[in-house]
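Convert to structure. Protein one:
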Amino acid sequence: MSARNRWTIAVVVLLVLVPQLGNAQARVTGVVRGNGNGDNVANAQVQIVDRRLRTLSGDDGRFVFESVPPGTHTLRVARIGYAPTELELAVNDTTAVELIVDMEPVALRLSEIVVTPGHFGVMETEVVAERTITRDEIETLPQLGEDVFRAIKRLPGVAAHDISTKLNLRGATDQELLVTIDGLELYEPYHLKDFDGVLGIVDVHSIGSIDLVTGGFGVEHGDKLTGVFDMTSRTPPISGTRTTLGLSITNASFMSQGGFGTGRGQWLVSARRGYLDIAMALTGGNDGISPQYWDVFGKVQYQPHRKHLFSASVLHASDNLSLSDETLQFLDTGWKSSYSWVAWDAEFNSRATARTMAWAGRVTRHRAGLGEDLGRVS
């Protein structure tokens, strides 16, 4: 073979080997373990960052990259519940590389979770709440006596009898529901209790807002179990006088409100008289039953300073039921509920407020009857 041919063969061999040497790649394998316990970590994401190679560790924690070019690379391993781990990966020619990656367990930080009780609002103005009933809806809903308790019966989680207006929340009786008006607890908030409380003792027209909290309320609300039914009286205008008269098939109502002291003071008075006794007598369906009820609410408030508000309020309700038939000569029952209270609301700074209240109340009941075989009881 001539010298020229030998050089030709050598050049051809070099041209064939050089590309093969340039494409030399290694097989990289490894196992991902949890630091401290030595358990294999499955489904960890293993990535060679500069080469955009990715894979997942198996159930036994092992992973494999079949073809990794020579050089120095960055290996990144990530898994939920573990701190991300990075290490340097050195690949030399076609030498297989075996790795052990230890990951440090860390607590998973979740976004803030805020747990709040069920909350429903009935407001004069539009508010953000889970369920809102406007004043117009309350006043136009068909219901007996324009009673605010009956409007609340339509809210989720609230149940009540067709006749009675007592509210049952979360399966409990009304005895476990706190009923307040302007922060004062009402111990007997129903009219005609001999019929299991047909109406509430507060006229809906004198109410400005209602908050119904169905659980999760603070200790300041007392020892009730199911909810808080908080009524806030209407805010009178700061000037002028407004008087309204109302007449329905069950009652007649009167309300007057206004302001004084150049806008620093307001007053409101509301009265309602039910005439179920008159309506039943006119229709001839009374069967000897004569139910009567009335209530009156009044308040006056004065704000000498923008951070101090003084108020005085009164609420009185009365109802009476008389019954007579062939065997019972007469039965007469009556309830009276009277409340009076004064309050001082103060704002000392943006983080400190106080409400001071002094109140007095009285709830009375009388019951008398005479029958042929029953004798007289009182």
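Protein two, convert as well:
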Amino acid sequence: QQQLSEGIQNSMDLTALQEQLSSLLKHYTNQLSHAVQTQITSIMEQIADQAGKNLERSMQSMIRQMGANMQQAFHVNPEVLMSAVELRMNEQELSELLRSLMSREDASYDSNIRKLGYAELNKPSQIAIYPKDFESKASVLDILETYNSRMEKDGTPEKVIRYTDVVGTLMSSVTDIIDTISYVLIAFVAISLVVSSIMIGVITYISVLERKKEIGILRAIGSSKRNISQVFNAETFIIGFCAGLIGIGLTLLLLIPGNALIHALAERTDINASLPFLPGIVLILLSIGLTLLGGLIPSKKAAKSDPVAALRAE
């Protein structure tokens, strides 16, 4: 064994061989590192499995090339070297390695327990507040706004509480929908009121044309134009007042089955539809005003009628 060792040392320049091997290993190690880095930077999460296969084939090819090139220093069988080097990572393990290298998250103990929902009671990340009614919710919001304003004035914006009013967001959406429906209904009601006023004016004008003899008799016995106008205005006033009373009465009657239906659908009796007293009075006054407005022009037409022509009309 000693003679064999001395014979090898005498027949080969081991220093030159060591330098050449170091150079080759360094060169191919750099190539291998560069290839792996290129694969990692260009690969994405959705093709990680395919990249693992490509990386395995690339490493096998580089090992074969390294074995072939090392023949310049000494005789090496590439196939034998290939069989001597064994990769201990399969395709799935290489894919997992690539995923871990591409991930920027810190896979530490703290981050893992945070993902699992762990939290310390003295260091809460968020607090859920459930007020018992809308007045309590408004009070909580006022307290939060006051605290945030004080923190901003003190120059400590990092202590400002960021909150989300979930109920307020939902109610704002519902309110917007209800407002839109209300505007549509108001438009229909306005159109109905305009048409009603026009029809009242038409009916009053027809009444004026049919009662020309009565107008002539009133003017003949000494009634003034103002008195004639007052007669027709009084009639339109009575029509408007009666129409308002009828509308309010029908509304009160419809509230009885309406509330029964609401109680059945809501399964509770504290929700009721009602017509307050003051809005009812306003509706009656609105009905009177619209009828007076509709009969204003016909009443002036009747007041301007010539008594002689009115008496001779029939």
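The two ends are 155 Å apart (CA to CA). The chain is about 75% helix and 0% strand.
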